[in-house]
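Lab notebook page, bench 4
Experiment: in silico fold of construct C2
Operator: M.H.
Input chain length: 271 residues
Purpose: comparison with the prior construct
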Amino acid sequence: MFIAARATVAVLVGWFLLTVAPVLGDEPAKGEGRKVIASAAATAYVKPDSARLTFVVTTTEAGDKSAREANEKHLKTLKDALAALDLGKTEVEVNALPTTVTTLMGTPQNPGGPRPVQGKKAQSVVQVTVRDKDLDKLRKAVGKLAETAMENGGVSPDADLNYPRGFRIRRGAPFGPGGPIDDDPEPVTGPNIEWLASAPGEARREAIRRATKDALADAEAAAGGAKLTVLEINVGGSDDGPTRYRQRGDVTTADAALIPIRVEVRVTCSY
């Protein structure tokens, strides 16, 4: 009798679970409300505390003369000129990468014949790092260094000094017995300049605050003024690492050295 009663209870419990379980499983999930996603971007500017100038020094020698030795002498002259500048307490560090030598080949005298060696070209890449927390002093030092580098043959690594020069005639000059007259100056780009900021964190956070505020305002407008609950905020763009801004050209104004830090913020809200 006792065993039969236990069996009956087990059957009743099993029947109850089979009957109720489908009902519990089909219960609809609670509604999460409507969502709105908005994005905004903002840019902040930070003052650099250092700069890096990059340029190349090229020396060409004909015949058996050593282009490497000539290039080393050229480099010494340039370094001496940079060291002679009066830059106050501004910190300057000059580093030259190992010199590369290229053989210059001419056109063969006979079709299919050997190409004669016309000379050799030696080239060195130079990087000058300048540090000063005073932006005006930093800008002036960079300008003097760039100008001195150009005066001593330092040009942009991107400058092509080996392209064939175009055929030009002076305006208004006839094509006489003396042939074409080519007296227009060839523009040559000076050193590449990178402005560096070692601690851009606060400027980046200011940009994040402004972008987040704008994104939330857009989300509220899209929701018709309804009360929003922020579910997620995603931040993209510049990080907190050293910030760089490449520039070529004018370094005479302080605004030219300010580094832009752009961030993008996307907010997801429910209402």
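Observations: The chain has two domains: 35-47+200-270, 50-106+117-196. Confidence is low (pLDDT under 50) at residues 1-31, 161-182, 249-254.
Next step: discuss at group meeting.
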